[in-house]
Every structure is written in structure tokens, then in C-alpha cells.
Amino acid sequence: MESAFRPLLLSCLEEGANGRWGLFGQTDYTVAAKYLEWEAGQQLKEIALQIRSLRAEFGRPNPLVERFLHYCSLRGANVPGEPKLARALLDEIQRGDFGRSYLATPD
Questions:
Q1: pTM for this one?
Q2: Which of 38, 69, 73, 99 is paired with 16 by a 20 to 30 Å CA distance?
Q3: Which residues neighbour 49 within 8 Å (Cβ) at sequence distance 6 or greater?
Q4: Ramachandran category for residue 25: left, alpha or beta (phi over 0 → left; psi -120 to 50 → alpha)
């Protein structure tokens, strides 16, 4: 699951940073939600929650999964829109700001 998570995350973040909404769930409870369905985004969230659940048993969270789920939890009038959130998370990943061992690109 973890090996499938990172490439899917990067793909979804690129799409989100280019203007697609629906990855972080900011519109889940709006009228627009039915127009913003995103199968890959939903799959990404499901994989992240499964990884979190499995790793919770061992007390070793995956920093990349946790950071993505943190972004998914952000709500409020002062929270940037989803494209800006996607760009911010992409930037964090590219800088390697957290969880370096889980962010390494396979050769």
C-alpha cells in the first residue's frame, strides 16, 4: 500500500495544484461536491486511512500519510483553497521537510 501511496499522492497533488478541487474534502458538504467527484482522490484517502490504521497497531506512523491527512482535515474561512493546499504539500515534499525515509524516490 505504501509503495502505491506516494506516486498516487504526487499525481493527485499535481492535478490539484493545477486547479482541480475535491482532494482535501473542503467541498464534501457543498452542492458542488457531486460535480467534484474524483476517483483517484478518493482512492488516495482510502489508502492513507488504511496505512494509518495498520501502522497504528505498531505505533509507527507514516509521516507522509499523516501530513496528507492533516491537510485533509483543514477547514475554515481562513484556510487556503485546495489548489493552494496541493501546491503547499507538493512544496513540502520536494523540500523533504518531513519523513525523509518515506519520501525517498525508488531507483
A1: 0.82
A2: 99
A3: 69
A4: left
pLDDT tens digits, one per residue of 2-61: 999 999 999 999 999 999 888 998 766 666 666 677 889 999 999 999 999 999 998 899
Instruction: Write the CB contacts of 99 (distance below 8 Å, at least 6 apart in sequence).
Output: 62, 63, 64, 67
Distance CA(70)–CA(5), nearest Å, equals: 16
Closest CA to 41 of 52, 28, 54, 56: 28
Q: Please name which of 8, 30, 46 lies closest in space to residue 81, comparing C-alpha atoms.
A: 30
Helix (H/G/I), strand (E/B), else coil: 103:
helix
Distance CA 20, CA 22 (A): 7
Q: What is the DSSP letter of 47?
A: H
